[in-house]
Amino acid sequence: MRKDYNLEKRKYIIGGFILLITIVYIIRLFSLQVADNKYKDYADSNAFLRRTQYPSRGLIYDRNDNLVVYNQPAYDVMMIPRDVHEFDTLDLCNILSITREQFDQRINEMKSRRGYSKYTPQKFVTHLSAEDYGRLQEKIYRFPGFYTQKRILRQYNYTAAANVLGNIREVSQGDIDNDNYYQSGDYCGDLGIEKSYEKYLRGIKGQEILIRDVHGRIQGRYNDGAHDIAPVSGKNLKISIDIELQKYAESLMVNKIGAVVAIEPETGEILALVSSPTYDPRLLVGRQRGKNYLALRKDKYLPLFDRALMATYPPGSTFKTSQGAILREEGIVNLATTYPCAGGFRSGGLKVGCHAHESPITLKPALRTSCNAYFCWGLKSLIDNHMTKYGSHANAFEVWKNHLVSMGFGYKLGIDMPSESRGFLPNAKYYDKIYGVGRWSANTIISIAIGQGEVLATPLQIANLSATIANRGWFITPHVVKEIQDTVISSDYTEKRYPTINSKYYEEIAEGMRMAVTGGTCRLANLESIEVCGKTGTAQNPHGRDHSAFMGFAPYHNPKIAVCVYVQNAGFGATFGVPIGSLVIEKYLTGKIAPERKHIEQRMLESNTIIYSGVKKH
Hints:
Blueprint: H1 5-35, H2 38-47, E1 48-53, E2 60-61, E3 67-79, H3 89-96, H4 100-112, E4 122-125, H5 130-139, E5 146-156, H6 162-165, E6 167-170, H7 173-178, E7 187-190, H8 192-196, H9 198-201, E8 206-212, E9 218-221, E10 237-239, H10 243-252, E11 258-264, E12 269-276, H11 289-298, H12 307-310, H13 320-329, E13 344-347, E14 350-353, H14 363-369, H15 372-384, H16 387-390, H17 393-407, H18 428-435, H19 459-470, E15 475-476, E16 481-484, E17 496-497, H20 503-519, E18 533-539, E19 547-554, E20 561-567, H21 577-590, H22 598-606
Helix pairs in contact: 10-21, 13-15, 13-20, 14-20
């Protein structure tokens, strides 16, 4: 019989088709049962309820082991929309102290959140009061799909250091996108060390697995908790802040705008970091956080703006200490070099005024009297009169600028806090752009010699300059965290940094600062039992009264504290900067204020310079 080849081909086609369908089914079954967990998750959600167990957030102590920030339990009301059945809505509203309108609003907000799923827990009410929590627990069985979730609420033993500590807030979608640790409804650090040390403080989440019956009712822990994961508490921090000194410095800055920074020179540890006006950190806790935060944001005195780190000011005459060191390093002056000061600096038609003192004058007396003319002549000599050494005004200026950068100006110092400003140091190209290449000289920019003009610095940078002089030529990056539990602190905060100035010249600057206290512009800082070194600053302000500044350290030998005080619109440096700075030094080193200086303390506590700020509250 003759073979039918068409039938033979059809057999292979049908067989191939069956094989293809089989392969598709195998792939799909593999996808459903092995690769894709979606249906398994649906099945698990019917049988199990997985609850996140939040860790205790790390505690914060000050340098003397005083507990500053601790935790208290708080409770959120959670709901799984899929499990919610008919219940008495008004009864729940009464228990939670909300209206029916607020109930509906919360439901609508929940459904509009990105990532909303009726199968996953959703936050309904946050921070239940103890009274509301107790009432709800008695009746929770009446509200299927609802349960309480234990949270951690930050509490504060002191009303001080809000700008240092920061606070915690609910995570944003950006936080969730950037870190898979977070889920909707979680909390994270916001501002201060709560933010910069978030990964140490937050700990590791745990998980509790509960088993449900066919009606969705909780029957207990799955396998007696054998598969539960216990949370791991966050690490405790010891900060370098002396909380009592912080409180004291903040009290001196009441009704003033500005900052106080105190550093332990030997370690770079910050003893006090004051921004004024400030606020009570307890305002940003609990259900009222949002309302209070909005009020602080709207406050025209900007209490959330950390002036110690973020504000950039003309350093004024405090800057003369750095100028003296540069002039000595570059060989522009020696200790016998004199410059005239007949009421100020005069060159051509240019004049920079100065107050009455001896003339001509050398470096140390110039620091003692805060002579403007001396440092103007010094800068002019560096930029204009040493062309053979540097080749051009621009090259000489870059040498000047690079020395300052090595001292910590013009760039962020690298403090372990968020939002530090870099200040501002111009470079030669900056002036080339304004005046034209080769068309500017020392006279054009002479105000930078006395900390005015384009130069801007943060109070932290000025305090760090003081610490550098106190150490006679080195500093450690300022930082506010002294210890992290079971963790070695970063070498960034233990290694010495050396500016490009020989240490012997810092000794000369320190001598000049000591002379300023014993018989110059800082006489109010002269303490009977402590050798204080200081330098005033009166920064010109084109928008109102001048700013009052002070930079100092003590004792003269083996210094323990370096300070910067900056008070906006307060006039001469000796009027507010010096007394506040000297009181902070005295309080830290002796623990008290001498009876004969109590009147100075009282004047600082009661004085009000904020009225000269030009800010109108209403």
